[in-house]
Amino acid sequence: MAEREGPRLDVPLVPRRTLLPTYDPETFGRASERIARFLGTGRFLLWMTIVIIVWIGWNVLAPHGWRFDEYPFIFLTLALSLQASYAAPLILLAQNRQDDRDRVNLEQDRSRNERSIADTEFLTREIAALRMGLGEVATRDWIRSELAELLRELQEREERGQERDEAADGPGGRDQDR
Questions:
Q1: How far apart (Å, rounded) are the C-alpha atoms in residues 42 and 101?
Q2: Residue 136: helix, strand or coil by DSSP?
Q3: Which of 69, 72, 148, 154 has the fewest CB atoms in 10 Å of its CB?
Q4: For 10-27, what is each residue's pLDDT tens digit?
Q5: What is the pTM of this model?
Q6: Which residues contact residue 7 at a Cβ distance below 8 angstroms, ignoring those fewer than 6 apart?
Q7: How wide is the angle at C-alpha 33 spanned by C-alphas 27 and 35, nearest 5°?
Q8: Which Pfam families match (predicted)?
Q9: DSSP notation for 47-70
Q10: Cα–Cα distance between 80 and 36 in angstroms, integer?
């Protein structure tokens, strides 16, 4: 039998070359979350405020030859717009990843709650069965009451037996007959 020509299924394909850049979505997502977390801090606001104050102060107070962004600070506006245009998608990406994690956690919580409810219902049925079974089992109090009743009956029989013996012996007792 001749071997079949073409790609073999037991050999992995060689990846194709592409002109587009490749990236790991998980690594990119983690990096975007770190950036988004930093953008939401007071530290970022403080540093951003300091940079803007220094930028404006430099371009207002420095000699004309040293100024790089004269009033109306077009370059500063461009830099802030660029920062905002990158910050918004990074924050949205981080929120989407958090939503995905929350969804997974919610599903796990739901399944855990379902298992817990099923376990609780099972244990409730088991306790009910045990209670029904205990109705047929001798408890300590029941055994004590039964033993006390038997002891009373034995004492009564013994007393009746002694009275019968005394009555049978007659007024003089048994020893007189001999």
A1: 25
A2: coil
A3: 72
A4: 888 887 888 888 888 888
A5: 0.51
A6: 13
A7: 105
A8: DUF1003 (PF06210)
A9: HHHHHHHHHHHHHHHS-TTT-SS-
A10: 16
Domain range summary for the chain, segments of one domain joined by + = 25-125, 136-166
CA angle 31, 32, 35 (to 5 degrees): 90
Close Cβ partners of 52 (under 8 Å, ≥ 6 residues apart) = 76, 80
Tokens (6 digits) for 125: 């049925």
User: Do you find a cis peptide bond into 72, omega within 30 degrees of 0?
Assistant: yes
Nearest to 55 by CA among 71, 40, 39: 71
Tell me the torsion sign for CA atoms 37, 42, 45, 51. Answer: negative
Q: Which residues contact 71 (CB under 8 A, 6 or more apart)?
A: 59, 60
**How far is residue 178's CA from residue 164's CA, in Å, rounded to a whole number?**
19
Give percent of the chain with pLDDT exceeding 70: 92
